[in-house]
Amino acid sequence: MLAKRIDELPPPDTSGDTWIIEPKWDGFRALVFRDEDEILIQSRDEKSLNRYFPELIDPLIHQLPRQCVLDGEVVISRNGALDFEALQLRIHPAASRVKLLAQQTPASIVFFDLLAEGDHDLRAEPFHHRRERLEKLLASATPPVHLTPATRERSVASDWFRRFEGAGFDGIIVKPVSGIYESDKRTMFKVKHERDCDCVVAGFRWYKDSDNIAVGSLLLGLFDESGSLQHVGVCASFTKEKRRELFEFLTPFRKNALANHPWKSWASMDESTGGHRMPGGQSRWSQGKDLSWEPLRPELVVEVAYEHMQGRRFRHMAHFHRWRADKRPEDCTYAQLETVPPQELKEIFSSGR
User: Fold this and answer.
1) Domains assigned to the chain
2) For labelling alongside 247, which of 91, 114, 139, 269 has CA 20 to 30 A away?
3) pLDDT, tens only, 101-113
């Protein structure tokens, strides 16, 4: 079951008892099936995640009913925050690497719905009934198995939305109290963080199959404390007409762009050199995609909307707002970003996991 994005918490009905609200976890969504001694951790694209998270198998066998289906999120918590990059590293082809990472950065699984237990298919049950059964089922759960917090109080949900952002949460999920579980339908709601940022446009990528007459995405940069321009993400989601307009608009800034470009050396650098990100760098996550890029003189400033940072980069793709001809590129620094002190996960995780 999926969620539709909304800008704010929906209003309660006259009883004030319409929604159950949960923190929105930033991890790998997964369905967990148990049948006697068999466990399947299934990803959203219906692939098994078992081999990537071997440390979860035994705890799930020991703590879940002998036959059940649960909905949840696989996460990694480090230094008081969710670490999505550490989670991505677990999807590795080498079993030895996965085993090592499972010891160094063990994962946890947080459950938020119960779809079946024993012979009972619960998907047609109201969510508050499924939640009650889930709470009883996981009443004695121990790490790495967890039950997500949930509330019907808007004030509590608003507090979570504000405080938990620093710990890497995406926002909050709003579920109808009486809602049934409808696969592939957006019957839940999500309220996510979004704020504005001014970035330097230092390059772009071509739109696929456009014969080099349309822009696919803009490469964004921010200056760090040392004055170096760091690649922080991309801005995309343009209409076809806008992509062609961008090509014409950016053409003058392509002239001699690489001569003094701050990312010039990256064209021949290994992706791991110096710990920097290459806009055109290949990795196993790109799966053979063409990530080549065209440099631009770093003279343009764009205002974009972003949700939150993952380390020094935007966690998700940014969205174009407007050009800022009134802003100087050198003013586009990390200092402009709103930072939220991390909220420790000790209220949810009872161990270092």
Assistant:
1) 2-193 (3.30.470.30), 195-259+290-336 (2.40.50.140)
2) 269
3) 999 999 999 999 9
**List of residues 6+ apart from 123 with CB closer than 8 A:** 115, 116, 180, 181, 182, 183
Residue type at position 285: W
Structure tokens at 164: 């938990």
Q: Give residue-wise pLDDT tens across range 122-175.
A: 999 999 999 999 999 999 999 999 999 999 998 999 888 888 877 778 789 999
Give the number of other CB atoms < 10 A from CB of residue 270. 9
Which tokens in the block code for residue 110?
């947080």
Among 42, 3, 36, 37, residue whose Cα is nearest residue 19: 3
CA-only gyration radius of the chain, Å:
23
CA end-to-end span of the chain: 27
Q: Do 238 and 304 contact (CB within 8 A), yes or no?
A: no
Length of the chain: 353
Token pair 């002239």: residue = 255
* Residue 90 identity (one-letter amino acid): R
DSSP 250: H
Structure tokens at 85: 């990059």
Query: Which residue among the candidates 24, 190, 192, 264 is catalytic per the annotation?
Result: 24
Which has more pLDDT, 57 or 338?
57
Mean pLDDT (the chain, rounded)? 86
Supply the DSSP string of 8-69, one letter for each residue.
SPPPP-TTS--EEEEEE--SEEEEEEEETTEEEEEETTS-B-GGG-GGGHHHHHHHS-SEEE
Distance (Å, rounded) from C-alpha 33 to C-alpha 36? 10
